[in-house]
Design brief:
alpha+beta
Length: 151
């Protein structure tokens, strides 16, 4: 969940400020209470698909690539679920998603990008994703959503 908030803040920062370096982005995040390293920022930039674009004369800044919008997250997550899902199961407020070997982290990333209120956090291995759900009453709703995505 912290990663989702950090990613949202990064998108807000690069949308509103001319961030030229990873170190500038690290400083901005620290001003907002996120203690991060340059290595974490490097991974975040890669995961968010950020690119450097020209602005002004001989200057470059981070930006979201054209055509990538929050609306695309659902389509990407749906494709990932449809292509990789093997099985869904749950117990109390723990949800397990079994996927093809090697796909768990990509599928979990797509699920995280949806920022669904029911999900507190995700943990991904090689072929298994663990979702922690706010409370067990939300499980049927989440099961329906995930099953619909896989079709």
């Amino acid at each position: 969940m912290i990663k989702n908030r950090r990613h949202k803040l990064i998108r807000d920062i690069i949308e509103n400020d001319n961030i030229e370096t990873q170190y500038q982005l690290t400083d901005e995040l620290r001003k907002h209470g996120f203690s991060v390293t340059q290595a974490t920022i490097s991974r975040d930039i890669k995961e968010l698909g950020l690119v450097k674009v020209a602005y002004g004369e001989n200057s470059f800044r981070y930006s979201s690539p054209p055509g990538i919008s929050p609306g695309n997250n659902f389509d990407r997550a749906k494709r990932m679920m449809r292509d990789n899902l093997l099985r869904l199961d749950y117990s109390e407020n723990i949800f397990i998603i079994k996927v093809l070997p090697g796909a768990a982290q990509a599928v979990a990333f797509c699920i995280d990008s949806l920022s669904w209120k029911e999900i507190i956090g995700t943990v991904a291995g090689d072929d298994t994703i663990l979702l922690v759900i706010k409370n067990r009453e939300l499980i049927p709703e989440l099961m329906e959503k995930l099953q619909a995505m896989a079709q």
